[in-house]
Specification:
Elements: E1 3-7, H1 13-22, E2 37-42, E3 47-56, E4 59-67, H2 74-90, E5 95-100, H3 104-109, E6 113-115, H4 122-125, E7 139-144, H5 148-151
Parallel strand pairs: 4-5
Antiparallel strand pairs: 1-2, 2-3, 3-4, 5-7, 6-7
C-alpha cells in the first residue's frame, strides 16, 4: 500500500473532522483553517491521517496530528511529521509550537524543546487552539524552523 500526502481540499473537511474527533481531539476551527491542513491518503482515496499548521503571525501551531492506528508505524509517523515541518518552513514560519500530553521524547528527537509555563509567548497563549493546554497535564513545545537544517 502506498500513501499520498497532500494539502487538504474542501471535500476533505468531514473526513478530517471525523478522524480528529475519533482521536479525542477538538475539530473546532478546522473549517476555518482547512487550507493549512495536510492529509495522508491511501490508494483507495481514504484519508487516514492529518495535521494542521495554524498560523500565528510569523509562527505556527501544529495541531490535530492524527494517523489511524492501523496505518501508523514509526516510519510513516516520522515521515509525515518531517513533511509537515518542511511545509511549515516553506510557509516561512519562524517557530512551530505544539501542545501535547505525551510523546515528548518523539518530539524532542525532532528538535522540539519544552517551553516552561512562565515563558509561553502571549500570541500562542491567546490563540484559539491554546484552550487545549492544561497546566500540569500538557506541555507546550517549540521548534526553531529557521535553524532546523543547521541542527541536523
Amino acid at each position: 500500500m502506498s500513501i499520498v500526502i497532500r494539502i487538504a481540499e474542501a471535500k476533505d473537511l468531514l473526513p478530517i473532522q471525523r478522524l480528529v474527533a475519533k482521536a479525542g481531539l477538538t475539530e473546532e476551527g478546522i473549517e476555518k483553517r482547512l487550507d493549512h491542513f495536510l492529509v495522508v491518503e491511501t490508494d483507495e482515496k481514504e484519508i487516514v491521517g492529518t495535521v494542521g499548521i495554524e498560523p500565528l503571525g510569523k509562527d505556527g501551531l501544529l495541531r490535530s496530528l492524527v494517523i489511524k492506528s492501523e496505518h501508523w508505524n514509526a516510519k510513516i509517523g516520522l515521515d509525515f511529521l518531517e513533511i509537515a515541518l518542511a511545509y511549515a518552513k516553506q510557509k516561512e514560519l519562524d517557530q512551530l509550537y505544539l501542545i501535547t500530553p505525551r510523546s515528548l521524547e518523539f518530539f524532542e528527537y525532532l528538535g522540539f524543546k519544552i517551553i516552561e509555563d512562565e515563558h509561553i509567548p502571549e500570541h500562542v497563549e491567546n490563540s484559539p487552539h491554546f484552550g487545549q493546554y492544561v497546566k500540569g497535564v500538557t506541555k507546550l513545545m517549540a521548534l526553531d524552523l529557521q535553524n532546523l537544517d543547521k541542527a541536523k
